[in-house]
Amino acid sequence: MATGAPQIVPSERQVYEYIVDGKTYPSEKPVLKASEIMSVAGIDRSQGLVEVEEDGTEKSLKPDDDCNVEGGKRFKKPPRFKRG
Q1: Class of domain 16-76
Q2: Residue 50 clears pLDDT 90, i.e. is over it
Q3: Judging by DSSP bridges, how do beta strands 58-61 and 49-52 pair with one another?
Q4: Of 7, 8, 18, 57, whose CA is between 20 and 30 Å from 41?
Q5: Terminal CA-to-CA distance of the chain, rounded, Å?
């Protein structure tokens, strides 16, 4: 029996997760700008961002670089060097 009321169908949006300095963040988009990741993680743009590949190699990213966050990509703040 149809009552004429609209049926609510839950939307099945894909949620992507990425990790920054050990903390997991969700995203509805598979590709983010490095600046978006830095903003969400509370990293100052002047510090930059490092992508950590599965084999442990690291790649420095500029704020305007595109980052594919599918598959739980890992990122971190670049190391800070102190004299002394």
Answers
A1: alpha beta
A2: yes
A3: antiparallel
A4: 57
A5: 79
